[in-house]
């Protein structure tokens, strides 16, 4: 799916896919899901910041 979207893109923006396999029939209780999601977002922000510093 993402490969098709990336092939059809006409801009230079980054296209990301987040897949969460912890949900569904065999997932956990989700008690810490908000913390995990916030940590993921912060990690992405820090990674993108590092990438932008390398480009400059």
Number of strands: 0
Secondary structure category: mainly alpha
Q: Describe the main β-sheet briefly.
A: none
Task: Quote the distance from N terminus to C terminus.
Answer: 31 Å
Uncertain stretches: none
Number of helices: 2
Order of helices and strands: HH
Q: Level of helix content?
A: 40-55%
DSSP strand content: under 5%
Overall, the morphology is flat
Mean pLDDT over the residues:
82
- Rg calculated over all Cα atoms: 15 Å
Search tags:
56 residues; mainly alpha; 54% helix; 0% strand
Care to describe what's here?
- With 56 residues, the chain is an all-alpha fold.
- The chain is built from 2 helices and no strands.
- The longest helix is centred in the last third of the chain and has 23 residues.
- It is flat, with a radius of gyration of 15 Å.
- It starts with a helix and ends with a helix.
